[in-house]
Amino acid sequence: MAAWAASARQAANLARLPSPKSIASSGQAPNLIQRRGLASGGDQHGPPKVNFWQDPLSPSKWKEEHFVIVSLAGWGLLFFGGYKFFTGDKKDKKEEQKVGEGSH
Predict the structure, then answer these.
(1) How far is Cα 85 from Cα 70, in angstroms, rounded to an integer?
(2) Model's pTM, two decimal places?
(3) What DSSP designation does 93 have?
(4) Distance of CA 14 to CAs 9, 21, 23, 25, 35, Å?
(5) CB-based burial label for 36 (10 Å; 0-12, 13-18, 19+)
(6) Residue 78's CB: how many other CB atoms inside 10 A?
(7) What are phi and psi of 62, to 5 degrees?
(8) Per-residue confidence of the chain (104 residues) as pLDDT tens digits?
(9) Residue 62 burial (CB < 10 Å; 0-12/13-18/19+)?
């Protein structure tokens, strides 16, 4: 599928470029062809996106990359908190027993 898309892209590029024979025979300078027409960040659709710290209670208004970072951080905290809750803090219990034994 990728090979087909690459060959279609190459054929489209070749169709866009003027042939060298037509340039030499007409005596004109080659026309510049705009290739990145859709690459500009210009026309936005919908409301403008904001940084998550500017409107923390409306995730639908956040920039996509900020939403991803906050979501991954939240999931990480959830998993880490669940891990700590269900496994307990065995290291702290051992230290408390050692401190308690030394004072008697």
Answers:
(1) 22
(2) 0.45
(3) H
(4) 9, 14, 15, 19, 12
(5) exposed
(6) 10
(7) -75, 155
(8) 777 777 777 766 666 655 555 555 555 556 667 666 666 555 567 888 999 999 999 999 999 999 999 999 999 999 999 999 999 866 666 666 666 665 55
(9) buried
Contact status, residue 95 vs residue 101, Cβ threshold 8 Å:
no
- CA–CA distances in Å: residue 11 to residues 2, 20, 103: 14, 16, 84
Residue reference for tokens 């892209």 = 9
End-to-end, the C-alpha distance of the chain in Å comes to: 76
Tokens describing residue 19 = 């042939």
Q: What length is written for the chain? A: 104
Single-letter amino acid, residue 44: Q
8 A C-beta contact, residue 70 and residue 58 = no
